[in-house]
Predict the 3D structure of the following.
Amino acid sequence: MKLKDKVCIVTGATSGMGKAIAKAFSSEGAQLVLSGRNKEAGRSLEKELGKAVFLAGDITDPSYNEQLVSTAMDRFGKLDMLSLNAGILGLGNVMELPISEWHQTINTNLSSIFYLSKYALPHLQNNEQGHILINASIAAFKSFPNHPAYCASKAAAMALMKQMAVDYAPKVRVNAICPGPVDTPLLWDSAKAFNNPETAVEKAKEATLLKRLGTPEDIAKLALFMVSEDSSWITGTAITIDGGILNV
């Protein structure tokens, strides 16, 4: 029960890594506000977890982010942490990518972090220790074909993480995790940007030193460590979890 009585907002909670993180946090005693666009999946997860409330909406809308925070305060009376997992790809090189998709990717992957943090930080600072955990990507360090908006947004998210860690220490810890190829729908969508999508995922798996794709549960275990007291002397840091692919 490492998160007993902690209150956390989890974005991107209806699938993939966000869903696994929500389940891991709940199993350790956290009370959750779940964010996502898929109402059916969100309601199902809300029912499964018990001490959770799902709020459907658009994470790129500042007012929705403000509502997530107010929901946490109204339902649970406090807010201890954010787990920020919402993300989209925005595929296509710079010449091909529609400007609207550029903005949508930046807004989803970067601006939403700013919005939710802005409204949450006054409450996070009221606790003994608040925490913001950003689910970034190895795309912050490594470029991939036809992912300009995604790579740019993840690198910017890393800079924002470090800056917030400076501004809000010691009351709030701010960190990021940077997954490599994890077996989620987003990975399979990402493969469409490569010349041979049908083999891109297999090549990514073989490129890892451990010769397997990550699982959402792998990421959830790291996320749990990062928001628990086990990592109480870590802030302003990005932890890579990629099966060793960046070492190849």
Notes: Residues 7-185+215-240 form a domain with the Rossmann fold fold (CATH 3.40.50.720). Residues 99 and 117 are 26 Å apart (CA to CA).
